UniProtKB/TrEMBL annotation:
Residue ranges that the Swiss-Prot or TrEMBL entry lists as coiled coil: none
Organism: Strombidium inclinatum
Keywords annotated in UniProt: Repeat
RCC repeat copies, ranges: 33-86, 87-143
Lineage: Eukaryota, Sar, Alveolata, Ciliophora, Intramacronucleata
Domain of life: Eukaryota
Name by which UniProt lists this protein: Uncharacterized protein
Family matches, as InterPro entries: RCC1/BLIP-II, Reg_chr_condens, Signaling_Regulatory_Domain
Gene3D superfamilies: Regulator of chromosome condensation 1/beta-lactamase-inhibitor protein II (2.130.10.30)
Amino acid sequence: LTPRINRTLSTPQIKVTQTSCGLHHTVFITSTNQLFSCGFNDNGQLGHCDTRSRNIPELVKSEGLDQHQVKVASCGYYHTIVLKMSGEVYAFGRNDKGQLGIRVNGVALLEPKKIETYLMIVQDSEIDRIVHSASHSRSFSFGSSLSQMPPSSREMPR
């Protein structure tokens, strides 16, 4: 295996400022705060509103994420969490263990969904980064306060 330059993301107009990898997918944030993704997509973890895998990074064109406003993105094994400059949090992909912070376990999100319950907890904090394990999500806010993606109902794992 030999490393190769990715022509999609190495142009004078596009500079990658952040990457995150899941088990079989990768997301990229550019200097213009756009989100690109590629890889295996069986749970919608790429955010393209379908389950078609992509070999080449493709711009995520989804309502809420298409306005050059992505600050942080982080991948779990089969899911992705995105933080916008505005502080809004979006999630997509697998949700069998409640890792997306939505009310319904087992429902994969094929398109990015704004996570309202999470915003209520961190509305007075400035989130700095989001981290994952296989099926678990956390965020760090200014001052190193730690917030776990909250379960939205008693049915979700704790």
